[in-house]
Amino acid sequence: MNNSRFDKVLVLIPARMSSTRLPGKPLAEIGGLPMIVQVAMRAREADVGRIIVAVDDQRIVEAVSAAGFEVVMTRADHQSGSDRIYEALTKADPDGRFETIINVQGDLPTVEPETIRAALRPLDNPSTDIATLTVEITDEHEKTNPNVVKVVGSPLSDSRLRALYFTRATAPYGAGPLYHHIGLYAYRRAALEKFVSLSPSVLERRESLEQLRALEAGLRIDVEIVNSVPLGVDTPEDLEKARQILGRKSQ
């Protein structure tokens, strides 16, 4: 780190061993390293704060530690990455020194460091509780694909929205851009503490979207518009794509 403004920023990377479509996903080899280590390296390149990997398996602990990154063991029964990072936060920082927490999913080995940095920008507004990211949809198929989560937001500037809703439907209706949500978050500590204390909400259960719990509870989410969606590795095909992307970058 070379900037004191990041002294109170903590990057937490949740990783769990069980994955239906890609067993042992955090340890899948990409460019000669486990995927979770590649994600930690992207976070280090972003240079925004201390990095801790939150895991549920001793094999991941050993792989992350061998690569020189800090790691915290968490329970295996967490229902979400948010719950896992909160347990890691309470273990790593019980005194509350860190004020901002960035949650980088452990299956984003090709995420651009600038994308991670962009997640912090909406928190420049003291009224913002949670920050996240989005990309304008250009693929017509994505506009109607329920696996592509859309942000419905009120524009704050050319590069930022205030989130009003998140949905798997095609929304909002009418002429204008649609936005693909990227599940990378930056939380104020108090907002994360409140979020994990809440029970799943009505709309969250209906849409199967955890972030709706925050909106229903009155937390403000602002969304930074970035240029590309990072590849999330969920299948063997995704894994091969990630290997190709990082292979090209190392040439």
How would you concisely characterize the structure shown here?
With 251 residues, the chain is of the alpha/beta class. The chain contains nine helices and eleven strands. A hairpin with a 2-residue loop joins β2 and β3.
Would you kindly provide a written description of the structure presented here, covering whatever features stand out?
A 5-stranded mixed β-barrel has the order 7-10-8-9-11. It has a two-stranded antiparallel ribbon with strand order 2-3. With 251 residues, it is an alpha/beta fold. It has 2 domains: 100 residues, Alpha-Beta Complex (Spore Coat Polysaccharide Biosynthesis Protein SpsA, Chain A), CATH 3.90.550.10; 111 residues, Spore Coat Polysaccharide Biosynthesis Protein SpsA, Chain A, CATH 3.90.550.10. The mean pLDDT is 94. It has 9 helices and 11 strands. Helix content is 32%, strand content 25%. The two termini are 27 Å apart.
Helix tally equals 9
Order of helices and strands: EEEHEHEHEHEHEEEHHHEH
Radius of gyration equals 17 Å
Oligomer: single chain
> Approximately what portion of the residues adopt beta-strand conformation?
15-25%
CATH architecture of the largest domain: Alpha-Beta Complex
CATH homologous superfamily (4th level) name of the largest domain = Spore Coat Polysaccharide Biosynthesis Protein SpsA, Chain A
Mean pLDDT, rounded to whole units? 94
What is the rounded distance between the termini?
27 Å
As residue ranges, the low-confidence spans are none
* General form: globular
The CATH topology of the largest domain corresponds to Spore Coat Polysaccharide Biosynthesis Protein SpsA, Chain A
- Strand segment count: 11
Give the strand line-up of the largest sheet: 7-10-8-9-11
Write down the domain tally: 2
CATH secondary-structure class of the largest domain: Alpha Beta
